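Reminder to self: tokens first, then the designed residues, so the page reads top to bottom the way the pipeline ran.
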């Protein structure tokens, strides 16, 4: 038994030596002897793409809809006008998660509000961020990246190393801007990529007031932290004549399981005061 064990060890040693001589590693094939610790670290300097969503998931992260009334009715909060809004919000979604949103909206025509000021794409079904690029470069990237090979670090980072010409088992077979994806899907799409909240809200109001009751509005940002503010703003636009500011704030906080900070509440209060015939 000792000889066999030693024999197996000797064979493994030879295999490792052979791999080191030929400059081939298990990581190049998508495997590793040890867990990859880079997933919790910062990406390499030459990182071009960051995978933001998993594939084969259903629910977009931090998905919330006006129809999720259970946490409100338990506390007997004021829900007047909320059920009729036809609105949802979330963080960034993948193409598969977009199907969930479409189905959740009962196949109504969608209006997508994209609040992201940074460059991002849909690639092989994933949502990916492009931290080294600008929004103006998104369309160019879809042409330059199509067909290229990626080095895939499991769990978080999707790296295209141009300097070292690294590659792995992933080939970019489909890539699109979010605007183009929505155009092909036949859905209305607006990008509000100003980083100033008050300016974003004013731009949002122009769009939101034109949305009919037969359309479904979905608002998203990157991580789902800002989108709930705009869900509340939509509630203010539609229901300010029937419901007080404090009630609208309270129900949106409970719906999203958050507490708006005081600067945000102040901005939303000013926004509420600008609505015609507010209560």
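Designed residues (279 positions):
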């Amino acid at each position: 038994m000792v000889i066999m064990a030693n024999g197996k060890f000797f064979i493994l040693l030879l295999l490792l030596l052979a791999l080191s001589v030929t400059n081939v590693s298990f990581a190049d094939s998508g495997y590793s002897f040890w867990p990859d610790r880079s997933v919790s670290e910062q990406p390499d300097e030459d990182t071009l793409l960051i995978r933001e969503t998993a594939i084969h998931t259903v629910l977009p992260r931090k998905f919330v809809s006006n129809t999720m009334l259970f946490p409100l009715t338990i506390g007997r909060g004021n829900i007047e006008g909320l059920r009729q809004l036809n609105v949802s919000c979330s963080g960034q979604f993948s193409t598969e998660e977009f199907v969930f949103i479409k189905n959740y909206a009962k196949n109504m025509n969608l209006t997508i509000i994209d609040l992201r000021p940074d460059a991002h794409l849909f690639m092989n079904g994933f949502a990916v961020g492009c931290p080294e690029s600008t929004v103006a470069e998104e369309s160019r990237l879809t042409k330059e990246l199509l067909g290229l090979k990626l080095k895939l670090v499991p769990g978080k980072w999707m790296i295209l190393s141009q300097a070292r010409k690294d590659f792995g088992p992933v080939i970019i077979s489909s890539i699109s801007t979010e605007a183009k994806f929505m155009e092909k899907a036949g859905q209305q799409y607006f990008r509000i990529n100003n980083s100033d909240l008050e300016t974003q809200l004013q731009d949002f109001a122009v769009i939101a007031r034109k949305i009919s009751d037969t359309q479904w509005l979905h608002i998203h940002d990157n991580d789902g932290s800002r989108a709930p503010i705009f869900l509340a703003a939509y509630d203010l636009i539609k229901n300010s004549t029937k419901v007080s500011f404090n009630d609208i704030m309270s129900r949106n906080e409970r719906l999203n399981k958050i507490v708006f900070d005081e600067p945000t509440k102040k901005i939303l209060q000013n926004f509420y005061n600008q609505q015609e015939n507010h209560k």
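The CA atoms of residues 43 and 157 lie 7 Å apart.
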